[in-house]
Amino acid sequence: MATETSGKSVTREAIVSKAVDLMGERGLAAVSLRRIATELGVSAPTLYWYIASKRELLDSVAEYLLRKGWTGMANRPADGQPWWDWLEERARAMFLVMTSVRDAPQVVAGNRPTLDRLQHVDTALGELVAVGFPADEAQQIFFVLGGYVGGMALEWQSEASREQEGADDSALGRAITDADRFPHLAAAAAGKGHRSPMSTFDYGLELLIRGLRARHEELW
Q: Keyword Transit peptide, does the record have it (predicted)?
């Protein structure tokens, strides 16, 4: 359904899409119902037919990002796919989305699923219940993975913003290669400690999945 105001057509989807565009261009601080109304060329009260508050808007933006991340991905493992491989795929897809949109980690971290998404959430939980996890523990697994994805995405974006702002970390970089003063830091710097954001994310995700598989074995 669309509302016509001064010749402009407005839908809930258009409002949410414009919010995501504003986040990508200017960051979360730029997102407000008033600014979205201006961008869409309508009066602010028009938006309240679809979005009752900024909190509801951000929940809808979070859902939009989640859908984008899981586009083409089923709510259950493919035939013959191990449950842990399915969890890895979901986490990796979400990390890629949250690092591709400015301030996405902050929005997704505080969201609640909309009523329309509850069936998807329930189906995903059911897959872990089916392999032996209690329902409450299955929910905790998704909370833990979501927290890890969000935290790593936030770290990645914050690190990138330092470079964009021209932060000069050269003195720190030289110091941590001084083996006489900081032998362990220097050894880390000389080894494989400096990895790409994706490889660092994958390393941590692998550790989490190993832990979940070990916990699953305990249940059986």
A: no
